[in-house]
Amino acid sequence: MRIILLGPPGSGKGTQAQLLVQRYGIVQLSTGEMLRAAVAAGTPVGLKAKEIMAGGGLVPDEVVVGIISDRIDQPDAKNGFILDGFPRTVPQAEALDELLKHKHLKLDAVIELRVNESALLSRVETRVAQMRERGEEVRVDDTPEVLTRRLASYRSQTEPLIHYYSERRKLSTIDGMMAIDEVTRAIHRQLLALGAVEPKSHARSAARAAPAKKAKKTARKPEKAAKKAAKSVKSPKKAAKKAVKGAKKAAKKAVKKTSKKAAKKAVKKGSKKGPKKVTKKRAKR
Fold first, then answer.
1. Confidence class of residue 213 from pLDDT cuts 50, 70 and 90?
2. Which pLDDT value is given to residue 120?
3. 3-class secondary structure per residue, 249-279
4. 198 in Cβ contact with 192 (< 8 Å)
5. pTM for the whole thing?
């Protein structure tokens, strides 16, 4: 998998890049680190970059692309890579497309982590205030003022890449304000949909984790059964009490019903006998 992570400062690109590296066995390519490594190794491109930096100039895009070209030819980048900090502009994205085309490679996905800028600033302000309360030293580049400048730079230079990759149907947008593990799951789902394949080692560990979860659920079943059994032990007493109560109630009802019936019968019988006797007496007279 060859992936680009897009998003403003503080969107969690670095965290997600590390998690992707662990999961898919690919490498994270940081332009800053690659430049330093190329300079230290004394490669032709590295020496050129060293000369430009020594003169206080910015390393041009073609030099950076040359360093990336050398780096992705190394064996550890064979399974894929995540580009961190590159491309930053549309011309850099075009140069990267040409490089990959020349190497017969394709870019698989561009994942944009979309965040709420005001929420990011609020987070930084809170963190800085807490650090100052504890008497800790606040980093110069970790203040609301610096973040505001970096966000403005992202909007003007890097945000156009969203449109660039969207037009080429490479862009997937994910809510970067979710919890870290939720963002990771969303990225993973997106990559699977694009045909990403996890290394066998990770798939095996995931498979081992699944039975463990199942075993945990199975272990809970006897617990539930025991609770149910305990309830059923208590229930005969309750059932017996209920039965006695019900029997008493039924007996009372039966007695009441019988006495009412007998009383009605007696009254009826008495009323019938009375007129007969009177009639006989009158006949004798």
1. low
2. 86
3. HHHHHHHHHHHHHHHHHHHHHHHHHHHHHHH
4. no
5. 0.63
